[in-house]
Design a protein that fits this description.
Shape: flat
Strand content: 25-35%
Helix content: under 10%
Structural class: mainly beta
Number of helices: 0
Distance between the termini: 38 Å
């Protein structure tokens, strides 16, 4: 079974990936320019930009 969750943010945001058992931060990042093609499914061909 696969779960898919989609979330859209209209401004810059930060994120953390945390190991639940230890609380250790595994990854952190900040998105300053969200991808405009975020609505496409993984594996779909995105339109070419001119």
């Amino acid at each position: 079974m696969q779960r898919i969750c989609r979330v859209g943010f209209g401004r810059p945001f930060g994120f953390l990936a945390v190991h639940r058992t230890s609380g250790l931060v595994l990854a952190a990042g900040r998105v300053t320019e969200p991808d405009t093609d975020a609505g496409t499914e993984p594996g779909e061909n995105r339109p070419e930009e001119d």
